[in-house]
Amino acid sequence: xxxxxxxxxxxxxxxxxxxxxxxxxxxxxxxxxxxxxxxxxxxxxxxxxxxxxxxxxxxxxxxxxxxxxxxxxxxxxxxxxxxxxxxxxxxxxxxxxxxxxxxxxxxxxxxxxxxxxxxxxxxxxxxxxxxxxxxxxxxxxxxxxxxxxxxxxxxxxxxxxxxxxxxxxxxxxxxxxxxxxxxxxxxxxxxxxxxxxxxxxxxxxxxxxxxxxxxxxxxxxxxxxxxxxxxxxxxxxxxxxxxxxxxxxxxxxxxxxxx
Length: 259
Fold this sequence. Notes:
This protein has 259 residues and is of the alpha/beta class. It has a single domain, classed as Rossmann fold. It has helices spanning 9-18, 39-52, 68-73, 92-101, 115-124, 127-134, 148-161, 182-185, 188-195, 208-216, 232-249, 253-256; strands at 25-32, 57-61, 80-82, 105-109, 136-144, 166-172, 199-203. It has a 7-stranded parallel beta sheet with strand order 3-2-4-1-5-6-7, with helices on both faces. Helix 5 packs parallel to helix 7 (148-161). The chain is globular, with a radius of gyration of 20 Å. The N and C termini lie far apart (49 Å). 40% of the residues are buried. Mean pLDDT is 89; it is low at 9-18. It comes from Nostoc minutum NIES-26. This is CobQ/CobB/MinD/ParA nucleotide binding domain-containing protein.
């Protein structure tokens, strides 16, 4: 009977180093360039879907100047927490909560133009290493406008993050149909993120007057469906918009933690 040789210490260590922890959840970070691209609108509708489906999600607001996610969704339990990424240690709670609470999803609405300092924050808290250690896969949701800054912000994220994250690129159709995003469509960064498996989504346009009324009353999107200040026709438009968004975002169900 042959005796199987014991693995050497080096072989054991190599096996350990190649074993990846099972992915138990998603860390979804929503980014965009300077204010106005629709970044926070995307964060709001994603959180709206999480809450509607009772998905265990912790949500974080990082935009102190225009805290839309907090303003509209903090009243929906379990609320929205604030992260001050521009302060030393301000991002610690993000990954400490992953270990303490083990949510299925953590959603982070980053400030506009966050790519300019996301690198230093990620390095400071060892974000990639700790997310992997805890079994969380990171998804970067990049919301595009039609200006050059959108492409530059995404390029910076791709250059820094590489294949350590998944990518979801959202074209906000408020700025025109998908073919109008020529700077992105003709860019090398589009080729780069596609090579990394990026999912491209379209955010349907919602009428300005409807959106403005939702915004002025600090409503969630689903609250507007039954609010007395909205006509039946406009409630129907909101319902159709939410339904269209859910169908579109289902294309990235794995990356957004919706599966």
